[in-house]
Write a structure and sequence with these properties.
This protein is an alpha/beta fold and 416 residues long. The chain folds into two domains: 236 residues, Rossmann fold (3-Layer(aba) Sandwich), CATH 3.40.50.150; 87 residues, Orthogonal Bundle (Arc Repressor Mutant, subunit A), CATH 1.10.10. The protein contains 16 helices and eleven strands. The strands form three sheets. A seven-stranded mixed β-sheet has the order 3-2-1-4-5-7-6, with helices on both faces. A two-stranded antiparallel sheet has the order 8-11. Helix 5 links the parallel strand 4 and strand 5. Helix 3 runs parallel beside helix 4 and helix 7 crosses helix 9. The two termini are 42 Å apart. It comes from Craurococcus roseus. Pfam families: Methyltransf_12. InterPro entries: Methyltransf_12, SAM-dependent_MTases_sf. This is Methyltransferase type 12 domain-containing protein.
């Protein structure tokens, strides 16, 4: 499924592999994000029910220069978990960078395959327990065909897909600048010539240009030529509202298990008027998320974990004493020491400030979250200090409502 635009897209990523990455940076940091953080996959896709001892076969479809594949493979390696991550992309230039990054980390659990995700049906690559498709569907000639190809590559009986697509409201200014550049730097021109024109135009763009008023987008400022090209010169760039993404996912035979971060999609976080809340209460989850998207205006992407539509709903067991809580990119004792004394955690998502209430036992619980202690052991320790078990489970439920919605407090995969 190719056309002239698709051919230009392929040429773009050969000329400017995206995102711009230097394999030497692997010695300094691991690029971490969503989707496909292993703790998120365990929690949101598998409900913290799939044993860590079971090998995980993962596909990163449209792997680019390797962020998602490197992150997931490194998480598996650090945890000593079995599995394989398959990097799939059409760009040979991107593959060279991704392979060099994997080599710098001495990762032996990544397999590199050049090709299109649209060729998955009939290939021998699958099936997969988990599939990452980050920043790809919105560039395809037919996003639904792409998502259906991915859904068809999932292992029978389970698994899920982490997707990222562009969202329109938070990209205000992008499409206006793209329109201008189609006039000044037509897509038929060589990529390097188009980048030069785009740089010149950005320097000359007046203060009234909407993109200058949008602080949430920085690829054209900090992402090098690859970032600028991807943002402003991409030959095909479709954005999805929440309802449009929901429709795409349903048409592919999937359902959204989680939008990341969930609290951003809850309008009650910033609508305190009781009359407005009475109206939001009448909305279904997709309508509530659409309302939040329209109100906040700062969502430039949507990240969703999706599972087969017919898969049974099996949420994480927050009331099970054997469940093990984990923090995503946070240290429990450090977090506990720095909780605000007023019991309200101020958080910000791209400038959106949301006060998050914390229960009385938050610090006592969080300082014991180490990825090894189950809830039962934490309850026992607190009981030895005079805390009633009923109070522990009550405050845990309140803490979970706050920190799970931030995508920070999750449940670990069971050992076996």
């Amino acid at each position: 499924m190719t056309d002239a635009t698709d051919e230009r897209l392929a040429a773009q990523y050969e000329a400017y592999p995206y995102p711009a990455r230097d394999p030497r940076e692997e010695a300094k940091r691991l690029v971490v994000g969503s989707p496909s953080h292993l703790r998120e996959v365990d929690h949101w896709v598998f409900g913290a029910r799939r044993p860590a001892s079971v090998p995980l076969r993962a596909l990163v479809a449209g792997g680019g220069t390797g962020d998602g594949a490197i992150m997931l493979a490194q998480h598996l390696a650090w945890a000593g978990r079995p599995g394989e991550v398959v990097w799939l992309d059409r760009s040979a230039a991107a593959r060279r960078i991704a392979e060099a990054r994997a080599g710098a980390r001495k990762l032996a659990n990544i397999r590199f395959v050049e090709g299109s995700l649209l060729d998955l049906p009939g290939s021998d690559l699958g099936p997969f327990d988990y599939i990452d498709c980050c920043g790809v569907l919105h560039h395809l000639p037919d996003p639904l065909a792409g998502l259906r190809a991915l859904a068809g590559a999932l292992a029978p009986g389970g698994g899920g897909i982490g997707v990222m697509v562009y969202a329109p409201h938070g990209r205000t200014g992008v499409y206006m600048m793209q329109d201008a550049l189609r006039l000044l730097a037509p897509p038929e021109e060589p990529p390097a010539a188009r980048v030069e024109v785009a740089r010149r135009l950005w320097r000359q763009a007046p203060e009234t240009a909407w993109l200058r008023k949008n602080p949430w987008l920085t690829d054209h400022l900090t992402g090098g030529d690859a970032g600028l090209y991807d943002l402003l010169l991409n030959p095909r760039d479709a954005a999805f509202t929440v309802p449009a993404l929901h429709g795409l996912v349903r048409a592919a035979g999937l359902r959204i298990a989680c939008l990341v971060e969930p609290v951003r999609y809850d309008p009650d976080g910033y609508l305190t008027d009781p009359r407005l809340r009475a109206r939001t209460a009448a909305l279904d989850p997709i309508q509530r998320a659409a309302l939040a998207e329209a109100i906040t205006g700062n969502m430039g992407i949507h990240i969703a974990y999706c599972v087969p539509a017919g898969a049974p709903k099996a949420p994480p067991r927050w009331d099970d004493p054997e469940s093990v809580p984990v923090l995503r990119e946070m240290d429990g004792p450090t977090l506990a020491r720095n909780l605000p004394p007023d019991g309200v955690l101020p958080v910000s998502f791209d400038g959106l400030r949301i006060p998050m209430p914390l229960p009385r036992l938050s610090a006592a619980i969080l300082q014991r979250v180490d990825g090894r202690r189950p809830f039962g052991a934490i309850a026992d320790e607190l009981a030895a200090n005079g805390v009633a078990r009923e109070a522990f489970w009550r405050d845990l439920a309140a803490l979970r409502r706050t920190m799970e919605s931030m995508n920070r407090l999750l449940l670990a995969a069971p050992a076996a």
